[in-house]
Fold these 3 entries.
Entry 1:
Amino acid sequence: MLGLIGVFAVARITLSLKPVAAGHSGHSTAAVCEYLDALIVAGLLALFLITFVLRTFYIPSGSMVPTLQQRDVLLVNEFAYRFGKPHRGDIVVFRPPIASSDNFIKRVIAVPGDTLRISGGTVYVNGKAVSEPYIAQQPQYDLVIKNYDIYVDDGDGYEPLSCTSANIPPRSLWQAPDRVPNGFYFVMGDNRNDSDDSHIWGFAQMHGRFAAGPLAKTATTAQFTGRAFLLLWPFNRLRILD
């Protein structure tokens, strides 16, 4: 795009320097210059939006089915979390706390200060059952945040996630033993039983170096890229995401 803007700019400069022949009004040249000016401005605006505000995101897996299908293309608002924080229900694009060449996309289930429990296929946040019409199926595991950890029961009893393999921050970063720590988020895929998410690798983290897990001692930093807000492709499924 930058190259195309450059071509328009060169053409605009060339026309502005071109002498008008005697007997010609120059109206045609002026009209062309106006069109080029509009194209240059539109191109610069689009470049700014793509660079700092919006980006596309390709869905590589089925972890968000049925809300998002594999190979869907979304628009992501990169500006959303520069001055604000994620909310429950947001569909977020973020850097996961495990080694991956791609960003992940999940739904925010619990935010800092929340209690969380999953029992009998129902998610409870702050003691209240969450209505989840968007999920593919109820989770086939139980889960609870307690004792400064995430405990998961896959059928063999509750076991805590390990801070060596999951992003479970040290106790000093928790404001309470049973609440999501500040700066951390519990996220899940809508395809609950076919999603690598917080019930496996711990909390998604807003910023800074990862507090724990396999990336804790690396230079990789946590990041929430933005909020997905528009299903762009395929066109027959074009819609606003909520």
Entry 2:
Amino acid sequence: MSELQGLQRHIAEFEKRNCKVFAVSVDPPELSRERVVRRLRLSYAILSDVRREVIEKYQIVHRGAGMGGTDVARPAEFLIDPEGVIRWTEFTENWRVRARPEQILEALDDVQSKKTALATQD
């Protein structure tokens, strides 16, 4: 959960860049709200994907890796633009390894600078 707290510590930097942060969990919403959002005092939402539709769509299912052999999400970070295009991803097979907020912010700056460069060419 330290990765969620890390994102929270940098939330102002994401907001300055007009980036909305949220997390996706396979836990039921009441667990995410009670156990995570409130306890960690997160100002961003954790979306519940109990039917695992999102993790299937984004191909980040770690089959049988959850408690009791359930499917869970493989750690991943995405930068998705307002049009829904994935501009950057970070995947790992090890649930203990996550992108640091600084790494995500650097990727966001890169994505935004490329988009600005393309807009000025038009």
Entry 3:
Amino acid sequence: MWLSSRRGFLSAALVLAGCGLTPVMEPRSQQLYKQVLVQAPVNRAEYELVRNLEAQLGTTESARFSLRYELKVTENNIVVSTAQEISRYSLIGELEYSLLDSNGATLSRQTAKSFTGYSATGTTVATQRAQRDAYDRLMVILAEQVSSALLALDLS
């Protein structure tokens, strides 16, 4: 019985080894690490986005690539009470971005989209803090989508 489970394990290992899967952080993907200059932010939300992108892609030492983006965040009312008070908001983020080489040629152009929400049931200060946290969460999600897509690119 032990021998048959060992055979199954070894055959599964051989099948997975031959399927062509490679880790994202292999040397080929390291060509973007600390090589991407991200466009400078102009507001707090963009600052959080750039901070998260640099945390994932590394702070640029010598830029071989540049990342240009356009961020759009829409805030919608989700829950309105019978007294016409808004108690929940939704933030919908759309990030159009382009990876450019040192000559300015576009290597990749994509869009990242996500959403998050926050509650407005507390005090004004609590609502403002919840809104700020929601924007921060949205920027983390968008930065992870962008860095994942960029690391999967074959730039060779």
